[in-house]
Structure formats: structure tokens, C-alpha cells
Amino acid sequence: MKKYISAILAALFVVTMLPLALVGCANEKTLNILNWGDYLDKDVKNEFKKRTGITIKETNVTSNEDMLIKLEQEDCPFDLCTPSDYAIERLIKGGWLAEINYDNIPNIVNIDEYYRNLPFDPDNKYSVPYTWGVLGVLYNKTMVDEADLGSWDILWNEKYSGQIFMYDSIRDTMAVALGYCGYSINSTDPDELKAAADALIAQRPLVKAWCTDDIKDNMIDGTGALAVVYSGDAVWCTEPEEGNTDLDFFCPEGSNLYFDSMVIPKNSKKKDMAEQFINFLLEPEIAARNTEYIGYSTPNKEVIPLLGEDWENNHIFNIPHEELATLEIFRDLGDDIKLYEAEWDRVNIH
Amino acid sequence: MKKIGKFLRGAYLGIVLFFMYMPILIMMTMAFTDSKSASRWNGFSLGAFRELFEDSDVKDALIVTVIVAVVSAICSTVIGTATAIGLHSMKKRSRSVVETITQIPMTNPDLVTGISMMLLFSTIGISQQHGILRLIIAHITFNLPYVIFSVMPKLRQSSDMLYEAAMDLGCRPIQALWKVVIPDIMPGIVSGALLAFTLSLDDFVISYFTGGSANNLSMLIYSRTKRGVGTEFCALSLIMFAVVGILLLVINLRSIKQEKEAAAQNKKVMRKS
Amino acid sequence: MKRTRIAYPYIFVWMPIFIVAPLIFVAYYTFFDKGHFTTEYITQVFSERTYLPTFWNSLWIALVTTAVCLLIGYPVSYLLANMKKNTAALVSMLFILPMWMNMLLRTLAWRILLNDGGIIATVLSWIGLGNVQLLYTPGAVVVATIYDFLPFMILPIYTVLSKLDKSQIEAARDLGANSVQTFMKVVLPLSMPGVISGITMVFVPAMSTFAVSGILGGKSVLMLGQIIEEKFKRGTFGIGSTLSLVLLILVLISMAIMRRVDKDNAAEGGTLW
């Protein structure tokens, strides 16, 4: 009897392990990427596979906080990720990132000096710039008075009650409210945060919905007049083919300027492969194709000439550097983020 | 009067079925729109299907889903059946203790099961890199009670005399089990296995918390819903609907045929006696 | 009896590790913070008014969903059970079919339907109700939850009703009961096991769902499941575990109340098949 039981258990063990082994083998030639939605062209992925045989496997999230929780784990299964400035700052402080070996990335010369050595990673030791943009308001020209444009106040204007989409992400939304109240978007003053949260609570009746990436579809369909979006998404929405030409975008003063960069988690076993992919993405032709797909502004100086005049003259895509002067970059707030979380809970539940 | 009653009954079922199928049908229609988003009809196109077949993430997720469903259904059926047979011959007191604990994953909200398994895995060190293993263990765990409680009633219906008779006739216990008990409770085992397979295919919440590096279909869909309804998912629903529909039709037609044969057999037996 | 031994792997290995231990972890994270005993999380959950509204939201949505599913589903099961066997098999297949489609896909379908300028909105404005917002409202969440879980109510009740002993109904008729009386006094009590398991299979997942309100709610109604998901996503295990524990207790209390209503029913009362 005992013999049979052990035989059955052994068989079970084999059955359980078999798929594991299979997947393990298949894993050799895949690169696990943690990325935003619509943030990497499928054709680019296919091209990379054609050239190197490496399959890119993507997991999508919608906020830096989601990325952080996945990256700040010893058993993090990802090999490459694209968080924003303040998240990178926190990851570097926590020692979660691998130093990048630039010998594998000769194409780094394509990155404009302006986007290198930014305060969150002063020597670009851990991060390679991918995209950048600003936080602002996407509006439908047929529904909004031009006189109301220009500042965050428009999102609190009762005229547009039930036509406003807010972005469901803690730092970005708090930044909007802090900006509306006239404070810095990196404020850690409890009173200022409370005032900002109160402003958001007061605004709730005017808000149609709190969404994330689906804001784009909703605005293209014309179901809302105003939405908080990143400039890259605005490029996507205003584009004539799949988008809606009634839409336009402005960036209020004191808003957020952000940089999304590619980083490699320290426990990735495929660091070389990840670097190979980064180098590939920096090739001018590839970067141009990818930019055309995702619509976010690019730090790659070779790209804009390749894209042509329409892109060069697009005020949402090719934002002149002098317009960025009043904008702030998010800083990592350390433990003070708890203050944000408490206020955020209050906003959510109202 | 009778006719009106019949009409009303039919109408009621019709309305409920309409409610059940309208959303799915509309979604499947949108698989053919010539747009990236399913909320706009821009004319006919098969682009969504091409998109779907070229999408390696969807392919990977499908493979994971099927592997997990098959392996977890097989494992939970084997373990569950063995447990049910063992439990059946246990003393009542200890049996009811085990039964009560076994019921926990059935009444426990998925969310709590998923979270508690996640805490367990991260503590005992089954890392996220082994996402598939984590998924399989989690799925076996929530499938087991369904298998056990599908098999138990059948064991109660089958008589212990059979087993003992087989032993008296010189069978070893394992032979008696294999040749007599198992065939007798086969319907329970089959329905348990089917239930396990279905539950595993459909699960989202538990997988979402335990999955780690492995994405099953539900997890993939959820991570993409944040950007609206892509037409690739409409195409996917159409394909899944067709596959499931055909499968169910085949199973049903077979069982109807079997029933008819059984009925015919019965008649013959009746006549003879 | 030697046969009990084949249940040992489950009883002594699987059950303690994968059913009992995970729940202990949830309790651990509720009462301990880095190894020190704390009641901070419990007091935080109950004293702060922030979390109470979500309990209330989940409870009313789950109750409404369960009630509507029962009201729609019971007549469907009843009609199915009174059909000819072959017809019933085919029609019940129509109700099973959507269940085998991924639940998230079915929820996504509602997003297309309820969108501004979608089919339902168009029909409503056509009959003169003006522009009503449907998507991103609590109503959207409730309708889609009902839609997702309706088959889980119909099938268990149908299973029990179709196995009902017809002679008892005939006896009641012979004794002069009219059809209403027969239904209330005979059919309904006999079908209670199916009703109970149907209610369980709808109420528990509806209570803890976060995907439906996440996809269709736009934060207009925040459910307990969403808060728990968010807490675990942010890595605040303490509050998350405490909220899950409270959810678990809420569900267990509701189940206990249900069991009192029908004492004889065990877990195997009526499962899906």
C-alpha cells in the first residue's frame, strides 16, 4: 500500500513540475518588461525578436506606485522597467536597481544632453531616458470656453459639472489639487495637503469619473469636456486618424514635468539582454517608429528630423524647453508619502 | 388559458436569455470594427483578429491558463478522490472536523484566499519567478473542496458491501478500490474534475494575487481594461464563445444520445421481465 | 481500516499548509507589526470613519445583487426543471455557456453597452429620457454584478429542482392543495438547499468583488474589495489584512444566518452540476 502511495505522490510531483520545467526552458529567450499601457510599439517588439530571437513579454500597470510595489521585492520577476523620476529616485535610495553598463549601450550618444544627468539620477548610473512630458488638461474645443483655459481652476468650474475626468493616481492628482491651491507639487506640509484633499473632495460632484488610461477613449468619443492627462496621451488623442481633432491640450503653470526612464532591477538575471534591448530602442529608426506609436515626447535628438514637420510643429509633442521653466519635477518624499496616503484615502472614500 | 401560460413562460425565458446574451453578442460584433477601440464602429475590418494572433502576450497568457487549468484539475481530482475515499471510512468525529476545514476555501471570499496564499508564498519562499507553480498550488487548493464534495455523496450512495465482497473474493485492497469503488463513483469524479477545470479557467481574483511573473488570461485582460475595451478582446470573446459553444454542444448531444440508449435498454429489460 | 490512510496526504500536508496556515498569516498581519503585538490596525479600521462607507457599499451591492438574482433566477430554474428532459438539457446549456466565458470579458461587454452614445443610452434618449449617464455609476456596477453571477444562482436551484421527487407534488395536489399552496408548502421548502447554495455562490463573490466596480464604477462607488486590493498593492499589509479579516467575519456571519434558516443543508446541498 505504502509503495502505491509514494508512487502516486511521485507521479503528482512530476506532473506539477513538468510545466514548470517547460516554462523554465521557454524563459531563456524572453525579457520580462514592466511597462505602462500603450508604451511600446508591437512592431518594435517583433523587430527585436526577428533580429535577436528574444521575445519581449510585457506586464502593464497604471501608476508609479504599482510599479514600486512590484520592483521593491527580492523576487521581482522583471528585467526592465520604465518608472518616472521620483520612483527612480526612491528605487536608487533603496538599492533596488542595477548599475547600467554603458559599454553595451553605444547608442546613448543619441540622447540629447538636456535629458541627461537629471537630479533624480545625477550621473545616469541607473537609468536611461525613454520619454518625457508634462501634466496638463485635455479639453474639447466644442464644449469649453476659451476664456476659461489656462489654469487648474477650470477643473473646479461648475459650468463643466459632470464632464470632467480625473486621473486616478495619487501623486498626479494631488499635484493637480496642490497646484490649484497654489502650493508646490512636492509639498509635505500637512495643512497644505489637507487643503488640497479638501479641494478634491469639494470637486467630486463635478467629476464624471476617476479613470486611468481609459480617459483617452472617453475623450476621443467626446463623452467629456475636460480631462487631466499627460502630454503624451494628449498627442495620441488629438491625432487625426484614430483621435479627435476637436481636442486640444494646455499645461498650467507650476504643473509637473516628468521623465520616464528605463531601469534594470538589481536581481534581473538577464541584464545583458536588457541592455541590448535598451540599445536597440535608442536606434534612431526604431526610436522614431516607437515614438510615432506611443506619442510621448522623446529625448532622442535623432528622432524629430525623422518624424517630419507635422510632429515638429505639434505644440503638445515638441514642447519648447523654455516653456518648461515654471514646471516642477516630482521628488521622492520618503516617509512623508504616508501623509499623502492618508489624505488620498479620505478623498477616495468620499 | 394554457396557451397563454405557455407563451408567458417562453417569453420569460426569452427575456432572461436576451439579457444574458445581448452584451456578449454586441461585444462580438464589435470585433469587426475598423478601429482600435470597441466603442466606435468605423466600418468592417478583420484587423482585430490579426492583432490578436500577433499578440504574443495573449498567446502566453492562453498557454498559462490552459496549463494551470489542466494540471490543477488533474491534481485536485486525484488528491480529492483519494481524500474522499479515505474520509468516507473515517470515524464521524474526525471526519466532520476535516470536512469543516475543507469547506473554508468554498465559503471564504476569493479575495481573502488569494491574499492569504500570497502571504504564505512570500513567507515560505516560493518566489514570484515561479509564478506558474504558485498559480497551480493556489488553484489546486480552491479546487479540492469542490472535488471532495462531488465525490463524497457518490461514496455514500455506493454500498460498502461491494468493496468487502471484492476483498472476500480475494482482491487486495488497492485492487478492490481500483476495480470496484472507483468505477462506482466515477460520475462524481468526472463532475468534480469538470468543475475544477471550469473554476480554474474562470478564476481571476486568486490568480491576480498569487500569479507573480505568470499572467493568465484574466490577469492580462484586467491589466489592459484600464485603457478601455480593445477590439482584440472582442475578437477573443468571439473565439472563446465559439469554442465553448461547440464543446458544450458536443458534450450535450452525446449525453442526450446516451440517455436515449439507456432508456431503450431499460425498455428492453422491462419487457423481458 | 487501512483505507483512511489515503486521505492522510491531504489531511496532514495539504490542509495545514495551504488552507490553515494562510489564514493564520492574515491574522498575524492583523495583530502583529514587525513581531510586536498591536491593536492599532483594528482600532484604525473601526474608529476611523474612512473605511465604514466601503463596508456599507459592499454590503448593499451584494444584498441587492443576491436578491435580484434570486428573483430572476428561481423562476428560470423552475421553468427549466418542468421541461422535457432533453429540452431542459439544451436550454440549461444556454445558461451555462456564458459562465464559461471569462468573467472580465463579460464585464467589459457592459462597458460598451453603457457608454455615452452606446446602445442603451441611444434607446433611452430615443424614447425621450434625455441624456442619462449610465457608465461610472453605482447602477452600472449593480447591473453588471447581477449579470456576472446570475448563472451561479440558476444552476444550483435547477439541479435541486430537477431531482425533486414528483410524487410529493402529486400527493399535495391529491390532498386538494392548489398550485400556489403546493409551491409554497412543498416545492419551495424542498428546493431550499439549492437556494442556499445559490445565494452563497452569488453573495460571497459579490461582497468581495473589486474588478466589476473597478472597470465600471469610475470610483463613483468604492467597494471593500477595492480598498483591500489597493492596500495590498501599496504594500500596507497590516490594514489590508485587517480589512480582509473583517470581510471574512462578515461573510461567515451572513452564512451562519443562512444556515439557521435551513439547518439540514450541508455544503453538498446543490452544487453546479
Give an overview of the whole structure:
The complex is a heterotrimer of chains A (350), B (273) and C (273). In chain A, 40% of the residues lie in helices and 16% in strands. Chain A has 13 helices and nine strands. The longest helix of chain A has 26 residues, at 2-27. The N and C termini of chain A lie far apart (63 Å). Chain B is mainly α. Chain B has two domains: 1-32 and 230-273; 56-229, MetI-like (MetI-like fold). Chain B is built from eleven helices and no strands. Chain B starts with a helix and ends with a helix. Chain C is mainly α and 273 residues long. Chain C is built from twelve helices and two strands. Chain C has helices spanning 8-31, 40-47, 52-81, 85-96, 103-114, 119-126, 138-162, 166-174, 179-208, 211-216, 224-233, 237-261, and strands at 32-33, 36-37. Chain C has a two-stranded antiparallel sheet. Chains in contact: A-B, A-C, B-C. Chains B and C meet through helix 1, helix 3, helix 4, helix 5 and helix 6 of B and helix 1, helix 3, helix 4, helix 5 and helix 7 of C.
